[in-house]
């Protein structure tokens, strides 16, 4: 599930999920809901695959959303379904920022994912906000209870 | 998410200035100074932005103070309305967050020779034509296409590149901040991804708070300055607010990724990752500056193409050329930018990099960097308000050089979050409410209008009062919107 939180100029998004991969999937749904509000209208026509690695889990979430935004902006594709896998981190990477609980230090975080959607049609998908970027301000990915929580701010 | 509001010290300096002392946080190198009236400061206290003013004071090489204008509100990294000057000779840094994603977002004002009475019968047709002609909204490309080579030339030279296509005049360039071209531009520093994102967006408005408005001069406060700017009461004008579109957003995004490790490498302590930065005299710093300047030049070209389309729309509806309508550019200002400028610090002239994040340059009369036409009155400072109340034209004053590195505010400043504004607009027709106020508004989406409704903003008159009183810029004319085009 996701919700927005108050931010004066932009959009704050809070996401909760039972697992880390589900958190990444839900974060993508949340971002596309802000851009193309009628996600239920997005048909599963096109599938794109992604493989990314980053310095830590929070940066990986940011990079995942950055990548999706770039695809939307340049290919005019919007997505509503995502499948994310987070394979075990490869050794030898560099950790930046606080290591997450249970995450080995000096490990890069890796993501393999698919996004399913179709060409953006403003009449069917609705026009929400033009998202300029996903920001680092107050970016957080952390365990909460039995699951995970992420917070990020979209620059509008 | 941070705790609600600001609980640190906010000491009154004078009628329109408040201090966050350097002692507030151990990493602060200078004080924070916020320009605001008693009336505005309460709302500012309830916001996270003063904390951001304090955070910016951590940046290496920062001079005098971390400053904020009266339209201050919570941003990401820097507050919106933030100003920070760093000295490269003292380890000064450049911070992409101090410019923002929308590099050289800015405003231009175009006059016409039409009075409100003359325009009124055609207003609806003009707004419809503007809405039809000017691409706006999510993911929408424009009518102008540039191949990679052309895009690189456009980024190197700014709107001058459009001269061959007959889309810019010498007078337009003369009345654009920096002549529409930062020499530091290095198109080769702009990534392929940024080029891809910006390829078909030059000449498009975007969404969010960007707009194209038909306005009328409501009141004149300084007759002589207004005359020099060719403004008079009841005159119809056009104001355009947009920036560097996807190209600029991607340049900033690329830089933030490249700089992730820079604080560690250069031993810089930062309280917020969005403030990530590198010394100006470093490879990373120079690379970002080259790309940022290229994106700034693209933004000036974007506003030039938006103006060309607005001129076309008026000409189409009124059956006269834009030259016959005397649709001349009064001025174009950047309000998200970093530039090298000479300022006096501790009695010495020093070349500093001034970051303006939602703040407008406001150089006074006699400053060498303003056009000859405005040498005697000071630089025109354009302050868009909200789409129901007013926008302002000010002129730069000497106080700006003494107090704010030659800077004034950039707008009214948001008061309500987008979510809160949309909630407040539930069940309402903002376009009809605006029509009752005499404003014809066209937008791609209901939500766009709802989030940007007048109530979402502070009263721009109160913000401008502070700038005027602090002697940063003086009031010249107040403009009232009559037609609005939004994404």
Task: Give me a quick take on this structure.
The complex is a heterodimer of chains A (156) and B (487). With 156 residues, chain A is an alpha+beta fold.
Describe the structure.
The complex is a heterodimer of chains A (156) and B (487). Chain A has 156 residues and is of the alpha+beta class. Chain A has a single domain (2-90, 107-155), classed as Archease, Possible Chaperone, Chain: A, domain 1. Chain A is 25% helix and 36% strand. Chain A has three helices and eight strands; from the N terminus they run ββαβαββαβββ. In chain A, helix 1 (20-35) runs parallel beside helix 2 (57-75). The two termini of chain A are 22 Å apart. With 487 residues, chain B is of the alpha+beta class. In chain B, strands 7, 8, 9, 11, 15, 16, 18 and 19 form an eight-stranded mixed sheet that branches. In chain B, strands 1-2-3-4-5-13-12 form a seven-stranded mixed sheet, sandwiched between helices. Chain B has a two-stranded antiparallel sheet with strand order 6-10. Chain B has 16 helices and 19 strands. The model of chain B has no long low-confidence stretch (mean pLDDT 96). The longest helix of chain B has 36 residues, at 283-318. Classes of the chains: A alpha+beta (156), B alpha+beta (487). Chains A and B meet through strand 2, helix 2 and strand 8 of A and helix 7, helix 9, helix 13 and helix 15 of B.
